[in-house]
Specification:
The chain is an alpha/beta fold. It is built from 33 helices and 29 strands. This is Ryanodine receptor Ryr domain-containing protein.
Length: 846
């Protein structure tokens, strides 16, 4: 069995006189903590646990076995009646670990026994007992939580090919090695931290093999790399398969949320205990089950921290609480890391991997909210700002890290952040929420200035105000809007601003003053119109000035870039390029926020009540002329007071809508949107052939067959009347709506988990979709002025304008066949039906 360490907890309490008192408490960690956790789960899982033999806690135990000392503090606001402690400071003693074997005389080791090893064999003071132990036991499973130095020493050489069978043959699949990402980084493996899960995964793929000494670790059959309690990468080094990334969609590595996760030690041991329960619970071993148990155990310990033990009136690990509630983790999503694509230099996006049609996802965001619709997508939140795009997440995260680094240092100069985007992209909203995120635990002052209106004297006055606020000791946040005016060639303030940004100084009447260390945001309106990626011209200002009709002066952004400590490019609600697939999702997040903020009464039972046609128009109109401002104006001028649904009648008149979008396109989207013409024609023709075959099957005799030959609706597609063709095309246009009704969508590419391919509809789904199809048929015929009567397409009469319940079974079956054929017809056209696998619980995001 593995070695054991005994961390020391120094817990501070208040004595009866109100003074702080220190108390020394001894708690075992490492292998003994693993054994204690497994013992607590032994009854539930039917296992027997033999832990390491340790010396009793005494002075000599501290001298020989202690590995670290921790200072604990009592949490200020416990969520229950228990007293909880978190780790304020931890110091490693640095003593070499000692191997502690279990007492094998206590029980017979069975052929399916599992050995859990913690630590590094190379670091043990005496490795021979460990080697002898493994020779005697010959376990079926080995789980090794490896610490530094990695992949070194005779113990690793003995187990790296897997446990030996009784016949002396190694079983590679029965070995699992757990490594903390911090240990890989310490060994020279360059893996980014808390930037984005994509960046972490890409660095892992590209750099894992960069240290040749770790080749045996890279080729380990089951390598499990921990990234705190927030993520895990599972790598099968001997198989030609992609690694898997388990990630928390709302947290990055090492991130605490709302102060609910305690600073804690022993998380690796808790994870190892969970892996042991799942990994060795099946044949062959189940790494996915082990990882999910491990994440659950480590997360439980992180949330609880140390609790107060009544046994000795001192802090202790919450063993019983963790193992009693242990279940397979469902708060982390999993995705395959595309190693080949990453190795070829391609940038990878989890958002694109785990979502389907962006337009359909955008509808879900508005209807059900981003938390539910984006349950498996990595979302990063900064104040009220939600971001799903990797590039934006990484730039925002880098800015936060850079700002915190400077604010926590002794640098007495400004920190300058650039926020660049087109007019109306939401730069001020981004800057305000970024500032709120950074200053969440600081006392702040905020100042806003419009750089376009500033004169020399105004800037000097502003600098004095900033200086006075920074002198108070509070964090001063300054936002300069329309800073592009300062960057124009004829600006008289450019040099003054550059000196402020570079040196933190300004001049007033010949005297030089220090500005202090404010946090300054520079908001620049800038359209990227230099390349073909920009599909639309710059927007026309809402209130044009004379200067707006002149050519806009070119901006030299390089002057600004030289003095910035961070930069964020804001895309806004409009499509930024032909490759921008996420614009409808960005727009949906903005729209949901606006509606929830200004019209919360539209949310009924967690669902935003917006008519489908209005959703189509707001989400799919190509461009808002003034960006976010146009979207806000359409919402603010809609008649929504006292309504419980946002329908077409609530929208402002078309003339007013025309001020903010292309009115004709917007109004066309209020009606049912049409498919791409080429796809529309393919699907309509395919559905028409299915209809014709069904009509032939329905014939009961030769007379009915002959009658079909003269039926105008049974002609070949090329000879079919235009009105009947258009009717079938409308039926094809309705496919996406029907798919949404059963939680599905269509994609023109093959995808894997977490998207699940739907080759056919279930019986219940067919029943529902058949009725929806008949309702669509009735609506279409009534809109085209058809009426009840004998079937006659020339006279526009049909006997089927009746409710579904009154339709004969024969014709109900026609509707059923027309929806049953949809998956196969889409397949022939190169499209597939998918639905999102829903197995991520979002109740743990707070």
């Amino acid at each position: 069995m593995p070695p054991a360490a005994e961390p020391l907890s120094n817990s501070r309490h208040a004595d009866s006189d109100g003074e702080d008192a220190a108390r020394l408490v001894i708690r075992t960690g490492g292998a003994d903590l693993v054994a204690t956790l497994l013992t607590a789960a032994s009854g539930k899982h039917g296992i027997q646990v033999l832990g390491p033999r340790l010396q009793p806690p005494a002075a000599n135990c501290l001298r020989h076995n202690a590995s670290c000392i921790c200072d604990l503090v009592i949490d200020d606001a416990p969520s229950d009646a228990e007293v909880h402690y978190s780790v304020e400071r931890s110091r490693d003693i640095g003593r070499a670990p000692v191997w502690h074997s279990p007492n094998l005389d206590q029980a017979n080791t069975l052929p399916g026994s599992t050995v859990v090893i913690t630590g590094s064999g190379e670091a043990f003071r005496d490795i021979e007992p460990a080697l002898d132990f493994l020779q005697r036991v010959r376990p079926r499973y080995i789980i090794h939580h490896m610490t530094r130095p990695l992949a070194a020493g005779p113990l690793w050489d003995m187990i790296r090919n897997g446990p030996m069978t009784r016949d002396g043959i190694p079983s590679a699949d029965y070995l699992a090695v757990i490594v903390d990402a911090s240990d890989l980084r310490a060994e020279g493996i360059a893996i980014s931290q808390a930037l984005s899960w994509e960046a972490t995964a890409e660095d892992f793929v590209r750099n894992l093999g960069s240290n040749g000494r770790l080749d045996t670790l890279v080729t380990c059959p089951n390598l499990i790399v921990r990234f705190g309690t927030e993520g895990v990468i599972y790598h099968r080094g001997r198989d030609a398969c992609d690694p898997k990334l388990y990630y928390h969609p709302r947290k990055m590595e090492g991130e605490r949320r709302s102060g609910k996760d305690a600073q804690m030690i022993g998380l690796s041991s808790a994870f190892t205990a969970g892996v042991a329960l799942g990994f060795a619970d099946s044949n062959p071993p189940n790494c996915d089950r082990g990882i999910r148990f491990g994440i659950s155990a480590a997360s439980g310990l992180s949330k609880r921290g140390f609790t107060h033990s009544p046994l000795d009136d001192a802090p202790d690990y919450p063993i019983a609480q963790i193992m009693e509630s242990l279940a397979l983790d469902r708060q982390h999503a999993v995705v395959s890391i595309p190693s080949a694509r990453i190795s070829s230099g391609e940038k990878w996006s989890i958002f694109e991997s785990v979502t389907g049609d962006p337009a359909e996802l955008a509808r879900q965001i508005i209807t059900f909210g981003p938390e539910k619709a984006l349950a498996t997508c990595p979302i990063q939140q900064f104040g009220d700002l939600l971001t799903v795009e990797r590039s934006e997440q990484e730039s925002l995260r880098a800015v936060v890290e850079a700002v915190n680094e400077r604010l926590n240092s002794s640098i007495r100069r400004p920190t300058s952040i650039g926020i660049i985007g087109s007019a109306g992209s939401g730069k001020k909203f981004t800057a305000s929420n970024l500032a709120a995120h950074i200053s969440s635990d600081r006392s702040t002052n905020r100042l806003n200035y419009n750089a376009r209106l500033l004169k020399k004297d105004d800037l000097v006055s502003a600098c004095h105000a900033i200086r006075d606020h920074t002198a108070s000791g509070e964090l001063t946040i300054v936002i300069f809007e329309n800073f592009e005016a300062v960057l124009e060639a004829d600006s008289a303030l450019l040099n003054d601003f550059l000196v402020i940004m570079r040196d933190g100084q300004f001049t007033d009447r010949g005297s030089v003053h220090s500005l202090g260390s404010p946090l300054m945001f520079f908001l620049v309106n800038h359209d990227n119109t230099s390349g073909t990626d920009e599909p639309f011209p710059p927007p026309t200002p809402t209130s044009p000035r004379t200067t707006d009709f002149r050519p806009r002066p070119a901006l030299d952004l390089s002057l600004l870039m030289d003095y910035l400590h961070g930069l964020v490019r804001v895309s806004g609600p409009n499509m930024s390029s032909a490759q921008d697939k996420a614009y409808s999702v960005r727009r949906a997040i903005m729209l949901r926020h606006l509606l929830a903020q200004k019209h919360p009464h539209l949310i009924v039972n967690g669902k935003m009540n917006v008519e489908e046609g209005v959703l189509h128009a707001l989400l799919l109109v190509p461009r808002y002329k003034h960006g976010l401002h146009s979207l806000e104006m359409i919402i603010s001028t809609s008649r929504l007071s006292g309504r419980n649904k946002f329908d077409v009648s609530a929208l402002p008149p078309e003339e007013q809508i025309q001020l903010h979008v292309d009115g004709k396109i917007f109004m066309s989207h209020l009606r049912a949107p049409k498919l791409v013409p080429s796809l529309r024609e393919k699907l309509a023709e395919g559905m028409f052939e299915v209809y014709k075959k069904r009509r032939v099957v329905m014939c009961k005799n030769e007379e009915e067959l002959k009658a079909l030959e003269t039926d105008r609706s049974m002609r070949d597609w090329d000879e079919l009347a235009p009105e009947l063709k258009e009717s079938t095309r409308a039926q094809a246009d309705d496919i996406p709506r029907k798919l949404r009704a059963v939680g599905c969508f269509m994609l023109n590419e093959e995808r894997s988990e977490p998207l699940v391919k739907v080759p056919e509809f279930s019986v219940d789904e067919l029943d529902m979709l058949s009725e929806i199809e008949h309702e669509r048929f009735n609506a279409e015929r009534l809109q085209r002025q058809w009426r009840m009567g004998a079937r006659n397409s020339k006279q526009r009469t049909t006997p089927f304008l009746v409710p579904w319940r009154d339709l004969t079974q024969e014709w109900k079956d026609v509707d059923r066949v027309m929806v049953e054929c949809v998956p196969s017809i889409l397949e022939k056209a190169g499209w597939h039906i998918y639905r999102m696998r829903e197995d991520v619980e979002m109740n743990g995001t707070s």
